[in-house]
Every structure is written in C-alpha cells, then in structure tokens.
C-alpha cells in the first residue's frame, strides 16, 4: 500500500485515522499497517515481560529493564523519519513523536497523547492511560517502561541525541493521567552510575554482552565474568605457595589497592562527595555479585565503622570452614573507605558466614 505526504498530514491533523491503511488477512495470519507487517500484543504478553524481569530484579527495576528493551523499538522509527523527509515533511521532534504515538494509540497502545510542552531540549507528553498502565494497574506504581523507552528511542532516532524520559505521574498508581517529561541529556558514565546508586537503575541496564566477540562492557568499560572456582583456585594456589597467613595478607593488600583504584575512577567523573563515592563503590560491587550490603553503622566513641554483609564471594565460594575467610572483601572495603574519605584505615572481619555466623561483619578503624 502506497502512502504519501497528504496521508501523513491528514493523520497529523486528525482528518484521517489509520483504519483505511490496515490490512488483515486472518487465514494467512497477516496484519499490516501502511504495508508494514505487525502483530497484536495481548495483555498477558506484556505482563509476562514485566514479570520475567521482576523475578530477578524488583518491580521498579523491572520497569527500567522494559524501558531499555523498548528504547530499541523506538530507535526503529528512524525508518519513518527517513520516509517523511523523502516526502518533504520536516517535522520538529515534538511533532514527530506525536505522530508516532498517534499511530500507536490507534493500534490499541493507550489513549491519545497530548503535547503539554515542546521545547528544544524538553518535551512533555500526557495521556489518560497507556496499555501497560491498564495491564499492570495492580502494581500501584509508575509502570510505563514501555512508553518511556519508546519515547527515548523515537526522540533519539529523529534528533540523533540522547533523551531521558521520566514518568511524573501514572494511571496505574491512581493518577488521572500518565505524564512523561523528556529531557535531552549528555550521555555520561556519571549520569548512569548515579542512577544505579539511587536505585533508579540496575547495572543490568548498562551491560552490553557480545558473547561471539568475547566482549562484555559495563557502562562503556570492559569487564569479565569470573566463575567462583577461579577465585577459589587462585586463593588456594597462593596458600600453597606461601602459606595461609601470608596469602591472606597478600589478598587483603591487593584488594585494598583495587578498592582505592575503583574510587579514583569515580573521582575522574567529577564526583567528590566521600559518601557518594563509597556508596557508588558498594552498590556496584554488590550488583556485580561480590556481596550484599545489609547495613552500615558508625560508633563515634570508638571511631569504628561496622559494615554488615549478608554474604561475600568468599563465604559463598569456600562454604563452611569454621573460620573467617573474607580477606579479599576486608581489603576491598578498606580500600573503598580510604579512597573515598582520604584516611588510612584497617578492616577486620569479626563475624563470617563460613564460620557459621548469620552474616559477614567487618569493623573498620583508623590506622596511624
């Protein structure tokens, strides 16, 4: 089916709907709009996608994961942008995103969109409800990750710039409408890292895995996955070479250096607040599987910081040993604190899951 400029203009002005451009052949299993093959999306499929992510994350981060997925969908609108240019139509980013979602809502993706604000670097959109806000109303929270990602992708497709979309209100949590505030931003490691620390994103959103090329990147930095048996093998090899106590000391110092270096990396982003630096390091190591932070306490009288972890990579790897095993983690925590606060400290594990304790607990004190 051929579609021309006058058709798009009629759709934009509301003189036409997509109905005349829909072709449906049930027996052949073909459904197309403007000659482009498409398919229906039952509500249980959308719910299944969200719940799939929820099982390994939580609901808030599941929304973020869906957002990343549909950002790629939005980027696909670059084809529509090219077609419009060939037709001699030079739409603003706001006009283009409104056209895209006019086409989408007429295919059942929610109520019509309203353009609330249209600036060069900020666009605000509003709708009474989206498809996902109806499907996931029982979540009682902002759930429109599909539309957030979709909008971000569409705007990047038409502008070539990065956009960040926040859902300010959501039909699923009882608000009268879903409102999306979209800002053009400069992509940066700092921006992404701070979102992870605040709990607004998980590192899974920023992992690029290319297994056939043997590459993994986390926010543009090369990383590797290390199985536990490699970790335990290296540790045991050190113990055989130099003895248990010296090996524990080497591991402690090596991981202390790693903690300090990690903080220096964050400082190069322009982050200077000591608490932010340490929180960032703790969050990233936790989400990469090194440990799970239960809590932090500060004793002013003894100048002692106590960090409680539900487990560490060592306690999980070595299992029950009847003794403390977390020398790498102790060094890592000490290095993070030293690098963040600019002080000299020492860390000691006082309780350990491998010894039969409920948690791995570390006391961190000043050293002269």
Tell me what the CATH architecture of the largest domain is: 2-Layer Sandwich
Number of helices: 13
Low-confidence stretches: none
**Strand line-up across the major sheet:** 4-5-7-6
- Form type: elongated
Determine the N-to-C terminus distance. Answer: 79 Å
**Secondary-structure element pattern, one letter each:** HEEEHHHHEEHHEEHEEEHHHEEHHEE
Overall pLDDT:
90
How many domains comprise the coordinates? 3
The CATH class of the largest domain turns out to be Alpha Beta
CATH superfamily membership of the largest domain: Trafficking protein particle complex subunit 3
DSSP strand tally: 14
How would you classify the helix and strand content by structural class? Answer: alpha+beta
Helix content: 40-55%
Report the β-strand fraction as a percent range.
15-25%
- What is the CATH T-level topology of the largest domain? Muramoyl-pentapeptide Carboxypeptidase, domain 2
| Radius of gyration, CA atoms, in whole angstroms | 26 Å
The biggest sheet, with number of strands, parallel, antiparallel or mixed sense and barrel status, is: 4 strands, antiparallel
As an assembly, this protein is single chain
Core attributes:
368 residues; alpha+beta; Muramoyl-pentapeptide Carboxypeptidase, domain 2; 3 domains; four-stranded antiparallel beta sheet; 14 strands; elongated
